[in-house]
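User: Can you predict the 3D structure for this chain?
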Amino acid sequence: MFKKILVANRGEIALRVIRACKELGISSVAVYSEADTDSLHVRFADESVCIGPPAPGESYLDPRKIISSAEITNAEAIHPGYGFLAENPDFAEICESCEMKFIGPAHDVIRALGNKSFAKKTMSQAGVPIIPGSEGEVSSLKSAHEVAAEIGYPVIVKASAGGGGRGMRVVQSSTQLEKAFDMARTEADLAFGNPDVYIEKFIADPRHVEIQILADSHGNVIHLGERDCTVQRRHQKLIEESPSPIMTISLREEMGRSAVEGAAAARYVGAGTFEFLVDSDLNYYFMEVNTRIQVEHPVTEEVTGVDLIKEQILIAAGEKLDIKQQDIKINGHTIECRINAEDPERNFMPSPGKITAFHMPGGHNVRIDTHAYANYVIPPNYDSLIAKLIVSGDDRREAISRMERSLEELIIEGVPTTREFFQAVFKNPDFISGNYDNSFVDKFLAHEKSEPEVKEGLTAGEEK
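Assistant: Here is the predicted structure, written as structure tokens:
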């Protein structure tokens, strides 16, 4: 087992990893930028190293500073968390060359699965259902027209090295393809340094369901059920829950088996997430593999009782999984809301600043993962996540009721947040019934925007 782990991240995920290290009896090293001097992950780590200015490229995204920090503190392993360098194959390779254990898959596996078209081909060969589309990258407009004509419109052009909705364009007809193809390639090149794109059949109004897996270096692979991440805005997840409102026992077994077989085919070792689209007929299609811990991992932890961060560390240390597939049970229902420093009234504009008051909800089956506190200053240099509010219940109805109560108790003053947005969502009949797809947020926001106008008209009529 490792004696010391460096956490190459910040915020709530860095604090989450530090907690797991403490419970395993492992010393932890925090790295931090000048903007994060007062962050809780710095306070609670056993050691800390400042790695530079606030700009990510000069701190958290600089492999040399991360490796140097590990060397001077004698850390044996590096946990990358999520974001930043977590899915960077070059960084994983550097760690390996410096004889430091990268807590995640091998660099060649990250590189292979990070290429969406290659990942799709690998999964297809393993028998995992995939969305009809091109076999690999589409390098010319002529080829793009040929592929789109073969699979039929609408289609979606996607960046091979993409993520987060960047380098992605939906095309309804052949007349739109040239512009969408060029824009996707340009955006992919700017965002990822790689202009390659591929084309898939566009699945209208699906649900986004992902399967969590764990795989050790001894050939054991298990899945821990699903998370439903359908409630998104611009491909950014807002609410995650388990089990999925549409899930059946047979579908869970089938999707779980596909994820396990896909992981085995890719020689995957570590914690990972297989993401799928599920259509209205419950057909599911592979999208991608996230080769890291997910933001929403607490949802799975709460319904299964498995500490995913500890399992990551144990697997990286060469331990065998002591959990068998038959040991995994889905107990109750868990929902997570990402509380962000964003202003829904201003198109969810990030709103950094000082938190003047901060009260966390509590009570039975309420968990909150956060690095924030009263008088904490949210820097403008990083993502806007303040906290993850996670609640559990015996069933979905109780979980929704508990989330409503917890959102009411949550107090964050000084900066705009998404709290009130979530309060409105949890009163929405379609959300409550589970009858929604990935267009839910757009429809919900459009309705909320038009609602005041309707009310004003009624009031004026009544006055007359």
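The longest strand covers residues 221-233. The two ends are 77 Å apart (CA to CA).
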